[in-house]
Amino acid sequence: MDWFRWWHGTLTDPKFRWVARKSGCSFTGVIAIWVALLERASCVTDGDADVTRGDVTGFDCDAHDAMLDVDDGTCARILAAFVEKGMVSDGRIVNWEKRQPKREDSSAARTREYRARRNATKSSDAGVTNGDADVTQGDDKRREEEIRNIEAYASVNSDASASHADLLEQAETSLACPVDRIVEAYQAAMPDNPRVKVKSNARCKAIAARWREAARLNCEPFGYTTTADGLKAWRKFFEICAQSDFLTGRSKPMPGKPPFIANIDFLMTPHGFARCLENMYHREAA
Q1: What is the pLDDT of residue 231?
Q2: Do 184 and 273 belong to one domain?
Q3: How far apart are CA 172 and CA 193, in angstroms?
Q4: pTM for this prediction
């Protein structure tokens, strides 16, 4: 699943103000770390029985200190306050399964409901909509074509739990992500950065998500419609990242801390990818 639920009232929940006071950190920093924790919990692989959605045991506080440009130890203090408040327990987001259910209904059920509403509208407005036939019928035809595309994809999709939105996105995205070749490009361009030794489901999903995002971008070096052009763009991206002292561990570290060095997970997070693309870590190479 490539998304998670954000509940109304989160920003006004007094627990986050308590965490901010307890940790001695800003309210905005607390919210940012909560978002990062939810994203981490949502992206972990569900193919491993020991690591399911909701797990945050691998959350890297040091990396998020760097990403958020805050003092060392800030994220660790916020996480400790979340634990003390009972929002995180035993390495998991508390009540994750209750507040982040995998699915509440099926795409087939939603399709049937849509068709029922459409037919009811047609019946009730039969004498009114003829004058607007181009608008109404055009919308119906486009919607019917969308449903046919989704159902065609669903008929061959092995993930029976995929949502309507998931199927639509996948049906529209035919450019498969060459995960192995992207990893090879990263390791060739950034040989001194951490090697990729494990290609977990979560890691592959993160790479595929950035591949799809980059294909839709309209800025150098991205925006592509073929695998060849995509790989060329990612090689250029990694080559620019390799010129960054910060990303490659050549920057002067904080006192008592080792220098930060980016791994492929950092480069494939939405935040890290955006900041790299915007030259926040390698302005000298822009």
Answers
A1: 94
A2: yes
A3: 34
A4: 0.45
